[in-house]
Structures are given as C-alpha cells and as structure tokens.
C-alpha cells in the first residue's frame, strides 16, 4: 500500500460522490435520517466545495496507486464571537470517508494529519470534527487521535 494525499480535482468527482454516498448510507444505518440518493451526495460535495471557496480550506483525496480510496473536506469557520480570540476561528473536518475496502489501514489517520497540517498552515489553533451519535467506531478513532468532546448537540423531531 502506497497512499498519497493530494488536492481534489474535478476529475475525482464521480468517485468522491460515490464515497460521500457510501458515508450517507453508513450513517443512515445508524441515525435513520440521512438522504440515501446520489443527488444528495452530489449536493453535499457541492456544498463543501462552496464552503472551501467562500471561507477557505481544502478538499483532499487519498490515493492508493491511481485509485481514489478516501476523501476529506476541511473547511474554515468564520470567527465565533463567543470564543476567545485565539480559538475563535476553527478548522472543521466536515467530511471524512474511507472506502470500506480500505478501512483499518491508517488512511483515516493520514487524512486527520493532513487536516491538522492545513489548520496549522492557516494559523488556526483548534480543529473540530463531528461524529453522529451511535457511530462509536468513528468517535473512538477521533479520540485516539486526540480529539475530545467539546459540544453535545441534541435534536428533537417535530411532527
């Protein structure tokens, strides 16, 4: 295995959409609320691309040889007035997905390392990532990497 991390290119779109779709299906099995069609995956990628263009960040892919096997969207949030100035602007790992056939090989960790590098390169002092409630595998992996719980969001479905 020879993994290379590189910037997303327009030619990567079909495989990256497929990866986001795979993530949506995986998360839907846990949460029951994810859109499961390809159009939703396309919209998600388009939203990430717009955020990167507007606010900064990057979308990167991990390649094994010439095959894209993972992707990550890193975005920069606007400064939040409720946080101290030194942490008011944060980097977010908005999407991170490794193709099911390539999980458990350290590729996710490589993408987290890239997110940390991008955050530091942008002068950020905080990096954030989310995991849906019930995705214990992702949460444990993120905590092993050094993330700690920061905010707990609660939801209530209304009729």
Distance between the termini: 49 Å
CATH class reads Alpha Beta
Would you identify the CATH H-level superfamily? Answer: Gcn5-related N-acetyltransferase (GNAT)
Content-based structural category: alpha+beta
Strand order of the largest sheet: 1-2-3-4-5
Secondary structure: number of strands: 5
| Biggest sheet record | 5 strands, mixed
Q: How much is the average pLDDT? A: 93
**H/I helix tally:** 4
CATH topology: Aminopeptidase
Percent strand:
15-25%
Fold and architecture overview:
With 159 residues, the protein is of the alpha+beta class. The longest helix has 19 residues. It has one domain: Aminopeptidase (3-Layer(aba) Sandwich), CATH 3.40.630. It is globular, with a radius of gyration of 16 Å. Helix 3 links the parallel strand 4 and strand 5.
Defining key terms:
single chain, 159 residues, alpha+beta, Aminopeptidase, 5-stranded mixed sheet, globular
Short description:
Helix content is 39%, strand content 21%.
Topology readout:
Layout: E1 3-7, H1 13-31, H2 38-55, E2 57-64, E3 67-76, E4 91-98, H3 107-121, E5 127-129, H4 136-145
Parallel strand pairs: 4-5
Antiparallel strand pairs: 1-2, 2-3, 3-4
């Amino acid at each position: 295995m020879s993994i290379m991390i590189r910037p997303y290119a327009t030619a990567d779109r079909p495989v990256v959409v497929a990866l986001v779709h795979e993530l949506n299906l995986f998360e839907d099995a846990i949460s029951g609320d994810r859109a499961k069609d390809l159009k939703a995956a396309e919209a998600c990628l388009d939203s990430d691309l717009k955020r990167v263009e507007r606010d900064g960040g990057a979308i990167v892919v991990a390649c094994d040889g010439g095959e894209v096997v993972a992707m990550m969207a890193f975005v920069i949030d606007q400064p939040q007035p409720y946080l101290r100035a030194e942490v008011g602007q944060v980097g977010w790992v908005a999407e991170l997905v490794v193709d099911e056939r390539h999980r458990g090989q350290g590729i996710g960790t490589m993408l987290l390392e890239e997110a940390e590098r991008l955050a530091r390169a942008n002068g950020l002092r905080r990096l954030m990532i989310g995991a849906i409630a019930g995705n214990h595998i992702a949460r444990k992996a993120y905590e092993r990497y050094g993330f700690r719980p920061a905010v707990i969001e609660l939801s209530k479905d209304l009729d």
